[in-house]
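Input structure tokens:
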């Protein structure tokens, strides 16, 4: 782990990362959090981390190994210029802001800045996140390993060489939790439509989705095999799957949805 960290933004994702780092042994004294909102900053303060309201308040003597940008993409324009002063010290800049490309950060931090662009997802809050990262050419191997350690604190990490793939990553795993939650909503409503009491339908949907996810996590089998294990020939599940796996069923709809999200990611980056 880094010996010196600046975390810019301590909302849900930034806060999840910070908790993961501290639980893995990062010394709170080695971290400075930049967070203007008192409510978001309070968990960091409770853990003994120094919190300042703006980048200007970071001590001039601070020489970070890593600067992590965890603010919303629309806020980045007003935040980023204040951190160019750290670039000369050679830190790695790690961003989890959706849609903001490596080239975008180079315009503010310089072409020689070491930049890692990463796309995590919200299960990071329970240390079950999935993050995909891409490094600019100046990122040294030790810096890449450092970022990998930091991101691993909240789940699994994969690296890609082609930054263009991050649009599809954003569409699939970045937005994926929302699609799963929508599935739980839809299952509950379908149960209600079939005559179940609402409280029971919601409970069945919630526990079924959560339990199935845990089974998928623990099993070495691919999803297709796990699906087949639940499906008896000629049974009730097989009848439902005839609808869901039809030519106008889930797959073309999901492919269309992911394509739409990836397209929007490219638009936001532009």
């Amino acid at each position: 782990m880094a010996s010196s960290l600046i975390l810019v933004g301590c909302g849900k994702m930034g806060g999840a990362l910070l908790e993961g780092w501290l639980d893995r042994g990062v010394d709170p004294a080695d971290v400075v959090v930049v967070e203007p909102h008192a409510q978001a900053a309070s968990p960091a303060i409770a853990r003994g981390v120094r919190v300042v309201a703006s980048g200007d308040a970071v001590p001039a003597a601070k020489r970070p190994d890593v600067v992590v940008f965890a603010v919303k993409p629309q806020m980045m324009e007003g935040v980023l210029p204040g951190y160019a002063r750290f670039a000369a010290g050679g830190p790695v800049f790690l961003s989890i802001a959706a849609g903001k490309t490596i080239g975008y950060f180079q315009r503010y931090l310089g072409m020689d800045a070491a930049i890692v662009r990463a796309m995590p997802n919200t299960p990071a809050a329970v240390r079950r996140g999935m993050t995909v990262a891409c490094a600019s050419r100046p990122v040294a191997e030790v810096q890449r390993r450092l970022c990998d350690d930091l991101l691993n604190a909240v789940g699994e990490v994969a690296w890609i060489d082609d930054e263009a793939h991050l649009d599809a990553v954003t569409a699939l795993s970045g937005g994926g939790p929302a699609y799963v939650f929508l599935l739980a909503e839809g299952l509950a409503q379908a149960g209600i439509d079939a005559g179940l009491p609402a409280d029971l339908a919601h409970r069945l949907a919630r526990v079924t989705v959560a339990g199935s996810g845990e089974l998928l996590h623990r099993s070495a089998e691919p999803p297709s095999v796990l699906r087949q294990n639940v499906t008896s020939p000629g049974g009730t599940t097989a009848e439902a799957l005839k609808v869901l796996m039809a030519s106008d069923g889930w797959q073309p709809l999901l492919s269309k949805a992911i394509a739409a999200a990836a397209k929007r990611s490219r638009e936001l980056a532009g």
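The chain has a mean pLDDT of 95. Residues 5-164 form a domain with the Rossmann fold fold (CATH 3.40.50.720).
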